[in-house]
Design goal:
The chain contains twelve helices and no strands. The chain has 209 residues and is mainly α. The longest helix is centred in the first third of the chain and has 33 residues. The radius of gyration is 22 Å and the shape is elongated. It holds the Pfam family Ank_2. InterPro entries: Ankyrin_rpt, Ankyrin_rpt-contain_sf.
Amino acid sequence: MRNIKLKSSLLLGAMVFSLSALANTSGAWWNDIKNDRASSVKQAIEKGQDVNVLNQGGQPPIMQAIRDKSMGVFDVLVRAPNINLNIENINQETPLMYLAIIGDVRRAERLIFLGANVNHLGWAPLHYAASMGHVDMIKMLLANGAFPNAPAAEGSSPIYMAVTSKNPEAVKVLMAAGADPKAVNQLGKSAIDLARELKLPGLIEIMLR
């Protein structure tokens, strides 16, 4: 009987602890991230806060920090001992993909140095950088081993996404790296086809050289 009471007590204690941790994670923790309270986030980590927990929107803290433009918090999270730099959100996106789309080359380069994967099955950081025409980010990713012809989930290549940005420099950089403008996606459409559809003769000329 005594063992049963002890187990019940321990179970109740664990439940209270879990509920307390959940309340903290869903409240103050996410508010601190949103408001870029780097010191508060650092203190929470030192007290054992899970830095890889997902919020209700399916975002891990490091990616929510980027979404909230809380880069002070981002810098704290990157240094956290247990941080998963290749964690995926509900849409199977990674922190490096988020940095690629906003064009933060310095932080993206550091993330790679710390172990973030440059290549990702399906949509990859290079697709995201190309879609925004971030030339410096594209160059950095390629220099760190990004595949210039990586097919996205529906087959679109980075150069296909570069055409959507309408940035000729982005297209040129990818072409120089060996990107194939004739590669087609699952709809049978190539980067050249897309450029014709969007009436971008300058990009067509670059890709047909």
